[in-house]
Design goal:
The complex is a heterodimer.
Chain A (H helix, E strand, L loop, with lengths): L3 E6 L6 H11 L2 E6 L10 E4 L21 H9 L4 E4 L1 H8 L6 E3 L7 E9 L15 E8 L3 E3 L2 H9 L3 E5 L19 E5 L5 E4 L19 H13 L1
Parallel strand pairs in A: 1-2, 1-3, 3-4, 4-11
Antiparallel strand pairs in A: 5-8, 6-7, 6-9, 9-10, 10-11
Chain B lengths: L8 H6 L14 H11 L5 H10 L2 H4 L4 H9 L7 E3 L6 E6 L2 E9 L1 H6 L1 H17 L4 E11 L5 H21 L3 E8 L8 E11 L14 E6 L9 H7 L18 H16 L5 E4 L4 H12 L3 E5 L12 H6 L5 E6 L4 H10 L4 E8 L4 E5 L2 E6 L1 H5 L14 H7 L11 H13 L7 H4 L10 E3 L6 E4 L7 E7 L2 H6 L1 H18 L3 E10 L6 H21 L3 E7 L3 E2 L2 E2 L3 E10 L16 E5 L10 H7 L11 H16 L5 E4 L4 H13 L3 E3 L7 H6 L6 E5 L4 H11 L3 E7 L3 E4 L3 E4 H16 L1
Parallel strand pairs in B: 4-5, 9-12, 17-18, 24-27
Antiparallel strand pairs in B: 1-2, 2-3, 3-6, 4-6, 7-10, 7-11, 8-10, 9-11, 12-13, 14-15, 15-16, 16-21, 17-21, 19-20, 22-25, 22-26, 23-25, 24-26, 27-28
Helix pairs in contact in B: 5-20, 7-8, 7-10, 8-10, 10-13, 16-26, 19-20, 19-22
Classes of the chains: A alpha/beta, B alpha+beta.
């Protein structure tokens, strides 16, 4: 058997087809979900992909969070359905309060597209178990509003509970993808909920699953093999 | 234009003596008289609005079309061409049932007035041209030219243009895979913002802009129509700006990329269900253009009820509705029994769609407002029978003096130390420096098919995941070369783009162009234009790559001073398997660096002459198109058969610029030896055309040499990939760290 992983398309979603491809490359079956769907087609997991849902108008993710599909998604995520939010998907998850914190505009005020080095801080989540803790990976980053912020208490809690899933690798050469690209607090690139089923990050693992395409690395593929293994072995 | 009483066709016929503001709308007296002659009466206000925008330089190509005909007349036989010049964009067969459409357009004037929106809507317009052909857009490119890098106004224009391209293109989900950024004082008041787009479709999905079948419905869909961009086409593109003229509304349109993204998805879904008979995007001249072009390309006439156009501003007059250039709108012709389904798809995507008219039996375009007829014209006279000018042209008097001012007599570096200094100055100069501060503001990864993107020689996109079929696109132009000799300059632009496609391993197939020039009313400019078109048409014929479409931008001048003639040429290529692509970066230490082609003492218009001596004179490098073709064949064969691991075209900046780029991208140095018969200076800085460097694995050296020898292409071993410095033996050594600092610091220091 394989796993059925849903990919939600909102108006303005951009990386939906890429994410479906990444799921296929990992060996799972992608299932398309439309933002107006009121049920989740019994998928085993869901990815909210990157893009500019609703043009990022009002605030990134703020409108998409109220789409019909989000109602069952939020309910089932609270009961353990694995959900990964990439970039705009991460923004939607914070707007939906499935993950803590928020994303503000990059501190340099520009859109930034680059190869970005991350450290996997938590390899115990549903989406990271094919990595090892402390492993450094290099995947594309591309966003306008990627600066992760949260209040001090939340940050302390995230750090204490090991819920910072990914951190930008700061020390090293910018040409190698090092550096905090947007001013995120504590160099946070991604976080997980306490249960480890909901994970969000700003960089794009779905753009790093084939050796020829994009950065030429496949460092993002373990996101999708992680969830596949977890679901198939469950 | 007075709105009361309504200027109906009937009213116009009854009041022949009413004076209309034809001059303010950009028409010349004889053009207005021609309109009266065509109609047999004075035009209504609405008709005048339509004729004035459609007969503007921007829409009618009235100064350029007598020259542009050569692209058709000299078109080489090419089985790959599925749709040629005249449609929204040309279409090329790339095999396996796929067709590719691509085009480059300009948005120069608006981008100077309002850099962000001007550039953003430039992207929006070219993308709509591509979807109007039935294709899914898969990539964009942006050839840009600005004034001097250190001029204060460049810091206003460039960041706005770059943010606008990124803000719009990124939001559409289109990878930005290439383009150029060039600085030159001649573009100070006239930046060139050209935008290109590539789209992919199956052969059977090609759509054309024509309205056929009486009773078919005309559906306007997308954004509501507002007061932005009224008269933009005729006023902005026709004459230089005049501060004295009052302007009620912004002449530059405002873009909404989110709306455009919905428009793309909604249009492609309608195509997929085969609901569309004909389609046209609304760009310059808005509804005037879309209705008259659809009707004149089809078999019948068209009746439109203007009251049904959804408005953003209810006070708009019918003339303004016809002229509005509000963005993100398209017009489709749909059979009556498919209208409901079409509207359903639009609703799914939250896109407003309205039936505004229908195709009729006759041959008239009739437009109604409040039940009265305000337009009754033969649409062909609006869309295709605009004025044609045989503008006088003459080789400028200064051309001889310019060409006599030979760059060969400029002082050259006398010591190794001077040579090294000049290399550092060159790679750090704004035109040769890394543009990553700019290109990192564009998404190059989205859609997950980007095989190569800037700073590679050409962008490359995979179009079939199973077979690895891909397309490559490169755009090039060198205004300095074209100023010295427009005929040769245009050919060099083609040669460079052709070569850039081939260095990545793709086979060049077809050409699009964006011809940026000064005022056609200046005979010197018109001569530059005529020469450039002749040069490009001749070269396309010889290389077998037809021009499939393009764009002309005139009046790029401030006062009497025109920009350098700047033909920008885009070449599209195809590669059977993207796994065989050749990147710029050095891959492995120990590989042998070969220089392909002949190096001559050619410095006219060179980067060296500009950076070191601030000089422009002499003749540009010679063009040898047969050599270009041979070089391309060798590069493609070497890529296909795995004989080379990296390749880089030699162009502005010469060999040293190429070696430094390959070294920095690969993070591997090179040791070079000046070949026999060349001095170090010429070896490093000459800009002779028809050349490339390649890195050959030692195991392939014999085979590669045999191939070049058998085909008669000079191949000279000039060094080896090695270490962490670029060393020219007996001359100097520059570490990659020094080179990186020089190459990468310039642009952020000037613009960040």
């Amino acid at each position: 058997m394989t796993a059925r992983i849903g990919v939600v398309t909102f108006p303005g979603s951009l990386d939906d087809r890429d994410t479906q491809r990444a799921i296929r490359v990992a060996g799972a079956e992608p299932v398309t979900l439309w933002h107006k769907d009121k049920d989740l087609k019994q998928v085993d997991a869901i990815v909210l992909c990157g893009g500019f849902s609703y043009g990022d108008y009002l605030r990134a993710g703020a409108i998409a969070r109220f789409s019909p599909v989000m109602e069952p998604l939020i309910a089932q995520a609270r009961e353990g359905l694995p959900v990964l939010g990439i970039c705009n998907g991460f923004q939607i998850l914070t707007e939906a309060h499935l993950l803590p914190g928020a994303m503000l505009g990059n501190d340099h005020l520009h859109f930034v597209c680059r190869d970005q080095k991350l450290r996997v801080e938590n390899a115990d989540t549903a989406w990271t178990c094919d990595y090892t803790a402390g492993q450094e990976i290099n995947i594309p980053l591309k966003n306008m509003d990627g600066r992760y912020v949260a209040d001090r208490r939340t940050l302390d809690e995230l750090e204490a509970e090991g819920r910072v899933a990914f951190r930008y690798v700061v020390d090293g050469d910018a040409a190698d993808g090092c550096g905090n690209p947007n001013g995120s607090l504590n160099d946070i690139a991604g976080v997980t909920n306490a249960a480890g089923n909901v994970v969000g990050l700003m960089p794009h693992p779905e753009h790093a699953v084939e050796p020829l395409i994009g950065t030429g690395r496949t460092d993002g593929l373990p996101f999708f093999t992680s969830i596949l293994k977890k679901l198939v072995n469950a | 234009m007075s709105r009361t009483p309504l200027d109906t066709v009937e009213h116009a016929a009854a009041t022949p003596d009413v004076e209309l503001p034809w001059a303010e709308l950009g028409l010349k007296k004889d053009e207005y008289e021609r309109v009266v002659e065509i109609l047999g009466r004075r035009p209504t206000g609405a008709e005048l609005a339509m004729y004035s925008v459609m007969w503007s330089e921007h829409c009618s190509y009235k100064s350029s079309k007598v020259h542009l005909r050569q692209f058709g007349e000299k078109a080489p036989e090419n089985d790959a061409l599925l749709v040629g010049i005249g449609e929204n964009a040309g279409v090329v067969d790339v095999g396996q049932g796929y067709a590719v459409t691509f085009k480059v357009e300009s948005h120069n004037h608006p981008s100077y007035v309002e850099p962000y929106q001007g550039a953003a809507t430039g992207v929006g317009g070219i993308v709509r041209d591509i979807i109007a052909m039935g294709a899914r857009p898969v990539a964009v490119v942006d050839p840009l030219r600005f004034g001097a890098a250190d001029h204060p106004d460049t810091k206003r224009v460039l960041p706005g243009v770059v943010a606008g391209i990124g803000g719009y293109g990124n939001c559409l989900g289109l990878p930005n895979i290439g383009g150029e950024v060039v600085f030159d004082a001649c573009y100070q008041g006239n930046p060139l913002v050209n935008a290109g787009c590539v789209g992919v479709m199956r052969h059977e999905d090609i759509h054309l802009a024509k309205a056929s079948g009486a009773g078919n419905k005309v559906i306007l869909y997308g954004a509501r129509t507002g007061g932005d961009g009224i008269g933009g086409a005729s006023i902005l593109a026709s004459e230089t700006f005049d501060d004295a003229k009052p302007s009620k509304r912004p002449a530059v349109q405002v873009g909404d990329p989110f709306q455009e993204k919905l428009l793309i998805e909604c249009t492609l879904e309608a195509f997929k269900e085969k609901l569309v008979v004909g389609i046209q995007d609304l760009g310059a001249a808005g509804l005037s253009c879309a209705t008259s072009e659809l009707a004149s390309n089809g078999s019948g006439g068209m009746r439109v009820t203007l009251d049904d156009v959804p408005l953003r501003d209810s006070t708009l007059s019918p003339e303004e509705i016809l002229m509005s250039e509000s963005q993100e709108r398209m017009c489709a012709v749909v059979e009556p029994d498919k209208v409901d389904r079409f509207l359903e798809i639009c609703e799914k995507w939250d896109v407003i769609a309205t039936v505004i008219g229908e195709v009729t039996d006759g041959d008239r375009l009739e437009i109604f407002w409040h039940g009265e007829k305000i337009v009754d014209v033969d649409p062909r006279t609006v869309a295709h029978e605009g004025p044609t000018y045989e503008r006088p042209y003459a080789r400028p008097e200064w051309q001889d003096a310019l060409q006599a001012d030979d760059a060969a007599k400029l002082p050259r570096p006398r010591t190794s130390e001077e040579l090294k200094d000049q290399v550092l100055k060159l790679v750090a100069s704004p035109n040769q420096a890394s543009k990553s501060w700019i290109t990192s503001q564009y998404d190059r990864f989205v859609q997950g098919n980007t095989v190569l993107a800037q700073p590679e020689d050409s962008g490359m996109i995979r179009i079939d995941e199973e077979t690895g079929l891909g397309v490559a696109l490169a755009t090039d132009g060198n205004g300095r070369y074209a100023k010295l000799d427009p005929y040769t300059g245009a050919q060099l632009a083609l040669a460079e783009a052709y070569r850039n496609v081939a260095t990545t391993g793709a086979r060049p197939l077809a050409v699009s162009d964006c011809l940026n020039f000064g005022s056609p009313e200046d005979p010197a400019v018109m001569w530059q234009f005529a020469e450039a078109v002749r040069g490009l048409a001749d070269a396309c014929q010889q290389l077998g790559t037809p021009v499939t479409g393009g764009n002309v931008s005139l009046y790029n001048q401030t006062g009497e001073a025109a920009i350098h003639p700047t033909p920008v040429v885009a070449v599209l290529g195809v590669i059977d398997d993207v796994a065989r692509r050749t990147p710029v970066a050095f891959q492995e230490e120990g590989q042998l660096v070969y220089l392909l082609g002949d190096t001559r003492e050619e410095f006219g218009g060179s980067a060296w002459s500009q950076v070191i001596h601030d000089h422009l004179g002499g003749l540009p490098p010679k063009v040898d198109l047969e050599r270009e073709r041979l070089l391309a064949e060798i590069l493609i064969a070497a890529s296909r058969d795995g004989m080379i691991d990296s390749a880089h075209d030699l162009s502005d900046g010469g060999l040293i610029q190429a070696v430094v780029e390959s070294a920095l991208l690969g993070e591997k140095g090179a040791r070079l030896i000046v070949p026999d018969g060349l001095d170090a200076f010429t070896f490093l800085f000459s800009e002779s055309a028809g050349r490339a460097i390649v890195a050959v694995p030692r195991s392939e050296e014999v085979r590669f040499n045999d191939m070049c020898g058998a085909r008669g292409l000079p191949a000279t071993r000039i060094g080896v990939v090695d270490g962490d410095a670029v060393e020219v033996q007996g001359e100097f050594t520059l570490t990659l760290e020094e080179l990186r600092e020089a190459h990468e610091a310039t642009i952020p220091a000037l613009l960040a």
